[in-house]
Amino acid sequence: MPTFDTIQQGADDRNLIRKIQKGVGFLAPTTVDLPATLFEAGGGLIDLKAAGWLPVGIVTPDGWEFGRDISKEDVSALGYASPVRSDITEVARSVKVTALETGKRHMLELTYGTDLTGVTQAANGEIVIDEPDLPVGQEYRLLVIGSDGPAADNWILGRGYGLVKLTSTDSQKWGKGDPVQQSFTFDVFTDDEIGTPVRHYIGGTGAAAAKTALGFTAAP
Questions:
Q1: Structure pTM?
Q2: Which of the four, 49, 163, 183, 199, has the lowest number of CB atoms within 10 Å?
Q3: SS in 3 state form for the chain?
């Protein structure tokens, strides 16, 4: 008969404990396709810049936060102290991040909700931007990729959002204590083209080595 230790050894796999040590995020207009895969045929990552994705850049150590708030309705019944049925009615998804690179044109367009295509930079380096009274709620695609582990045992985890919209930005502080930074909170919607709100990616040499533990059927 198996002991507790042998059951634990067969149930646990520490190689599946991942920690995102590096991460990058990208925005793109909705005319850019969300990638079906993050990898090329040879095993390398796809060229996101060439595909039209714009980098969010360096972010604070808190990194990226992915919210998933579930709402439900319970059915109560006579003689029962606990609900006899529960149905999920809503899943509100969100993404939060605080960017340290705040001067890129596409990030300023995101922050102020305006089109800066016609804004030019003068010979002396000056850029003048008029912030609109009411921002335009532009919708974007969002892609966040994280990396964990060395090249021989590297895990690439990704989240692709077909449709996000900026819903809030916290105050921006100018002072000697902290760098200039801007926080962003995005609401996530289901994109009609993709059909789902989120596309999850798991790959890399580490995932290939751990295919038995991951438990997915191998592609033909």
A1: 0.92
A2: 49
A3: CCCHHHHHHHHCCHHHCCCCCEEEEEEECCCCCCCCCCECCCCCECCCCCCCCEECCCECCCCCEEEEEEEEEEECCCCCCCCCEEEEEEEEEEEEEEECCCCCHHHHHHHHCCCCCCCCCCCCCCCCCCCCCCCCCCEEEEEEEEEECCHHHCEEEEEEEEEEEEEECCCCCCCCCCCCCEEEEEEEECCCCCCCCEEEEEECHHHHHCHHHHCCCCCC
